[in-house]
Amino acid sequence: MKTTxxxxxxxxxxEGHIDSVNSPVIEKEIDDSIAQNNPVLLILDAEKLExxxxxxxxxxxxxxxxxxxxxxxxTSTAVYEIFDxxxxxxxVMVEKAYRFYDVSGCEIIGEGSNGKVYxxxxxxxxxxxxxxxxxxxxxxxxxxxxxxFLLGVPTAIPYDVVKVGDTYGSVFELxxxxxFDEILREDAENLDMVAKKSVEIMKIIHATKAPENLPHQxxxxxxxxxxxxxxxxxxxxxxxxxLIDSIxxxxxxxxxxxHVKNIMMQNGETLLIDMDTLCTGNPIYELAFIFNAYKGFGxxxxxxxxxxxxLPIDLTYKLWRRILAEYLESDDEAKLNEVEEKASxxxxxxxxxxxxxxxxxKTDEGKKLIAACHDVIAELLEKYDTLVY
Length: 389
Known about the structure:
The chain contains 13 helices and 15 strands. It folds into three domains: 3-96, Transcription Regulator spoIIAA, CATH 3.30.750.24; 107-173, Phosphorylase Kinase, domain 1, CATH 3.30.200; 178-383, Alpha-Beta Complex (Aminoglycoside 3'-phosphotransferase, Chain: A, domain 2). α7 packs across α12. Strands 1-2-3-4-5 form a five-stranded mixed β-sheet, with helices on one face. It has a five-stranded antiparallel β-sheet with strand order 6-7-8-10-9, with helices on one face. It is 46% helix and 20% strand. β4, α3 (77-85) and β5 form a beta-alpha-beta unit. It is of the alpha+beta class and 389 residues long.
């Protein structure tokens, strides 16, 4: 019987049939493996299990008494039905196997730090995650999408989780939907419409009472300061911390990654995708993240933004300013410049932290980007005593 042990979790791979004939032997093999490995948690992988009888279920029941958090994963539909009919799904966490999805040859319509979004056909898109160990995060995003939807936020809810190669993906049904970047590539004259619709959906999110389980963006920003400490003086770090600490905590729900690749248009309705970045805090953070998408990540090389959004850089700069003007309901250039600078201080702090975290701070490109972010932040620290606008 194949087993693996990782971080105190023993996974036992079940195969074939488990019935009254072989269940005593299988039970002994499982007991021997548990005694040898002394696990904290136990998982039964049923991907190759074809059938389990009442005798096999009794073996599982004994294991459940020994391991209160026992999990049975990758069950076929037939095996899952056995566990369900006998009531085991009420006592044990039983998960069905994920169907396999092939995205080879499919158009990539979006890409972020967590994965890529593929268009499978006119009705379906699949977000494929980079890290195969993020299954819990995928499930969390699914729940966040449902929560946001029930609270009145227009969002596309993933209806399935699938296996894609060695990792996982979330499947969305978006009938004839187009992302805002696609709409802009078709006709740049749509810029004002895209800006207005982006702000409309942003204000819907910001007017929605945030669930209590969302992360607080201020706490995250405080950690960023600690991660960039080697690039600033003690005085600068103290000023950064003071500015962040003084930002009012108003409990506003925010998307956290609101840009043209994460907003879709379907039959005239605007929908959000990528809800795993939902958080709560002050809108200056949301504006900072939008600034990053359209300008910040390209501060040392504008082609970075062009490659990501697949839009001309002058168009993305113009879009950012229109979004800022729409959100603030102002065309006052002095006001827009002030808020952009305050947003950029937070946004570029996040850019620096990301470069460090992914290990690119040792590369020439990473060093150049960190230096550019540092110079802007240092200048703005001298200019502003508050990030409130």
